[in-house]
């Protein structure tokens, strides 16, 4: 390695590779490497936070050796380019390298495994794999949202791909006291194996990651969000109930539900108008047959104190009035092979290319005219991965680059299409609902929901793990479809029990949102056209009163509890805007010194005050709860318990165990 100090950044060159390590924020480094003559200049998730560091170039055992220090983090690089990271001089992470010369490990060195393995792709760019030594005692969290029950990701293989209900936000929080951002939107894979950790980009021009250290997870999140951004302040009038279903088919239905909510004394903050209220995909306007005067509807809802949310998809049907103009102007994601279609649900569709600034301006002008100027308050940006006929990322070409190279950042640009334009139009905070995200998405006013998950207790368990890990990678505005999305029979007593348990969990989550596609699917369509707002199916009713009086009384009781918590919830939203702390927190986030908290994942903290123990099994009416050190009051009966013990807590159908820290 040939080392140089370039204005406080360590640069090393060897055999065609350029490696650069530089301070980037508090106790943090940005680490880049390339086989090209220079770096791309893309910052991706990172904001500009270059921090001058101390570089020392020397020798070790007669060979070149260098170190760089930024506060509490230090990196060393040996003559073979192997990087080792330290927190306060204690090693936390080292690249996995097994060659005759330069291996830091005492294990086999004749394997010829490289730490940074660039494999050329015919025609340009590289397939990149980087490896790190594994630590048997390490626990790993974050990384976004995956549909499995594992909160601790050690031993997991995670595809870095955006899919319906899978959200890739590649930031990990380690129990060893470091946070690691894979600052690369390429499709790839992260493997947290017992033998080594590996990050893979299927196609890229450079390696780019960011690493920070701290004594606590809270410190790691604060450092991370200081360089990727934090959520804005959530309006207090969105901290109650969001009412939604698949789908309100007409203007009349929406107003009837809103008025019944008022008559029943069920306050709702907003009501959501789901998909296929439009003529065809890509027209981005109401079908006048069923929505004859949307402005009057919106005005009436506003007079009741209800905000209005409308669904917008990124898909454009060939029948749309905008299709051929958008095609001619190059505003679609292109297929490398085959025809124009890359989405086929209810139409022959192409996907708008949100990474193209011209596309963002074009689509906004249409949506502004047909929705925003009518008074629509928020947008539900569904299918924001984007969803595809088949997730063949290698067959996509974006304005930003080839699909394998940039696909994962798409949902961030899709959200920016609306966020940045709405910021120009209004002084109040911008809040939109999305089904996907990437690193840094939190600063664009995104409420991310967990996708079209099934209505099962197994799925409820998965969403708890998903929400906790999303919070640990900066996505603090997060929600689910209460009861799950895909419901075969809404009258099934087992489903009703699931709905109640899910609602009880959702009361203690960032956003309380009713939604779902409630079967059976036997509702007759409104007309027999193959387009417009009338032909698509609708699920059964999904309002609080839709599941019988017993369920209704429980849900009303739980809603009252949520509304009583609003002053506290407002404090949590203020906190996440200031330091990035999630609302939904693992126990170890609040109690990092408690070893048991690092192994307890079926309960969580809602902020710093409330410990929540969801019920995630059918016909379960008590459960064990671990209480960390301190005094804890059961909010249901005011009984106070000493911490540092496991108790058995009652869980009748109308409540779950929740304890307030005294």
How would a textbook summarize the main sheet?
Answer: 9 strands, antiparallel
Q: Into which percent range does the helicity of residues fall?
A: 10-25%
* Unreliable residue runs: none
- Tally of DSSP β-strands: 41
Shape: globular
Mean pLDDT: 97
**Amino- and carboxy-terminal Cα gap:** 57 Å
Note the beta-strand portion.
Answer: 25-35%
- Secondary-structure-based class equals alpha+beta
Question: Count of helices?
Answer: 12
Radius of gyration from the alpha-carbon trace, in angstroms:
26 Å
Set out the fold topology:
Elements: E1 2-6, E2 9-14, E3 17-24, E4 28-34, E5 50-51, E6 54-60, E7 63-70, E8 73-77, E9 83-87, E10 90-94, E11 116-120, E12 126-133, E13 140-145, E14 157-160, E15 167-174, E16 178-182, E17 188-192, E18 196-204, E19 206-213, H1 217-228, E20 241-243, H2 251-264, E21 270-273, H3 294-303, E22 307-312, E23 315-317, H4 323-328, E24 334-335, E25 349-351, H5 357-370, E26 378-381, E27 396-397, H6 403-406, H7 410-425, E28 432-434, E29 446-449, H8 457-471, E30 478-479, E31 486-487, H9 493-507, E32 512-514, E33 517-518, H10 549-564, H11 566-579, E34 584-585, H12 587-590, E35 604-606, E36 610-612, E37 622-627, E38 631-634, E39 640-642, E40 645-650, E41 658-661
Parallel strand pairs: 20-21, 20-32, 21-22, 22-26, 26-28, 28-29, 29-30, 31-33
Antiparallel strand pairs: 1-2, 2-3, 3-4, 3-5, 4-19, 6-7, 7-8, 8-9, 9-10, 11-12, 12-18, 13-15, 14-17, 15-16, 16-19, 17-18, 23-25, 24-27, 34-35, 35-36, 36-41, 37-40, 38-39, 38-41
Helix pairs in contact: 2-3, 5-7, 9-10
């Amino acid at each position: 390695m040939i080392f140089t100090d370039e204005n406080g950044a360590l640069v090393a060159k060897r055999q065609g590779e350029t490696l650069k390590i530089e301070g980037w924020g508090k106790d943090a480094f940005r680490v880049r490497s390339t086989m090209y003559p220079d770096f791309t200049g893309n910052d991706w998730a990172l904001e500009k936070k270059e921090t001058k560091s101390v570089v020392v170039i020397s020798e070790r055992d007669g060979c070149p050796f260098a170190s760089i220090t930024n506060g509490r983090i230090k990196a060393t690089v040996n003559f073979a380019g192997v990087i080792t990271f330290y927190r306060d001089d204690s090693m936390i992470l080292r690249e996995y390298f097994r060659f005759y010369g330069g291996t830091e490990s005492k294990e086999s060195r004749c394997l010829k495994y490289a730490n940074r393995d660039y494999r050329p792709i015919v025609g340009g760019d590289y397939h990149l794999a980087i490896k790190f030594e594994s630590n048997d005692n390490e626990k790993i969290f974050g990384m976004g949202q995956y549909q499995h029950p594992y909160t601790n990701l050690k031993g997991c293989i995670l595809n870095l791909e955006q899919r319906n209900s899978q959200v890739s936000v590649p930031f990990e929080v380690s129990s060893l006291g470091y946070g690691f951002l894979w600052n690369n939107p390429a499709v790839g894979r992260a493997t947290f194996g017992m033998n080594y950790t590996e990050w893979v980009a299927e196609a890229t021009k450079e390696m780019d990651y960011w690493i920070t250290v701290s004594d606590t997870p809270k410190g790691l999140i604060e450092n991370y969000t200081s360089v990727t951004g934090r959520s804005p302040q959530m309006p207090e009038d969105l901290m109650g109930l969001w009412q939604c279903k698949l789908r309100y088919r007409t203007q009349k239905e929406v107003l009837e539900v809103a008025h019944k909510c008022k008559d029943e004394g069920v306050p709702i903050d907003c009501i959501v108008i789901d998909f296929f209220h439009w003529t065809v995909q890509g027209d981005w306007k109401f079908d006048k047959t069923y929505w004859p005067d949307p402005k009057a509807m919106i005005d009436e809802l506003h007079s009741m104190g209800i905000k209005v949310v409308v669904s917008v998809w990124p898909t454009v049907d060939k029948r749309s009035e905008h299709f051929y103009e958008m095609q001619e102007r190059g505003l679609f994601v292109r297929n490398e092979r085959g025809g124009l279609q890359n989405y086929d649900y209810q139409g022959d569709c192409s996907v708008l290319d949100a990474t193209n600034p011209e596309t963002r301006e074009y689509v906004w002008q249409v949506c502004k005219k047909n929705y925003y100027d009518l008074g629509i308050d928020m947008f539900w940006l569904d299918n924001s991965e984007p969803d595809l006929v088949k997730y063949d990322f290698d067959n996509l070409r974006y304005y930003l680059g080839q699909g394998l190279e940039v696909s994962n950042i798409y949902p961030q640009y899709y959200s920016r299409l609306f966020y940045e334009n709405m910021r120009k139009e209004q002084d109040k905070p911008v809040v939109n609902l999305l089904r996907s995200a990437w690193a840094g998405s939190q600063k664009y006013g995104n409420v991310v929901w967990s996708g079209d998950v099934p209505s099962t207790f197994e799925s409820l368990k998965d969403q708890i793990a998903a929400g906790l890990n999303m919070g640990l990678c900066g996505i603090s505005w997060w929600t689910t479809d209460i009861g799950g999305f895909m419901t075969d029979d809404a009258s099934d007593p087992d489903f009703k029990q699931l709905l109640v348990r899910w609602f009880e969990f959702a009361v203690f989550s960032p956003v309380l949102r009713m939604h779902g596609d409630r079967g059976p699917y036997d509702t007759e369509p409104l007309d027999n056209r193959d387009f417009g707002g009338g032909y698509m199916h609708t699920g059964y009713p999904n309002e609080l009163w839709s599941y019988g009086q017993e369920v209704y009384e429980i849900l009303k009781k739980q809603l009252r509890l949520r509304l009583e918590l609003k002053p506290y919830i407002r404090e949590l939203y203020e906190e996440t805007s200031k330091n990035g702390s999630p609302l939904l927190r693992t126990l170890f986030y609040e109690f990092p010194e408690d070893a048991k908290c690092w192994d307890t994942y079926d309960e969580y903290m809602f902020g710093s005050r409330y410990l929540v123990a969801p019920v995630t099994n059918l016909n379960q009416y008590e459960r064990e709860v671990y209480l960390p050190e301190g005094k804890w009051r059961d909010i249901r009966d005011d009984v106070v318990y000493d911490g540092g013990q496991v108790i058995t807590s009652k869980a009748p159908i109308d409540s779950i165990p929740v304890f307030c820290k005294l």
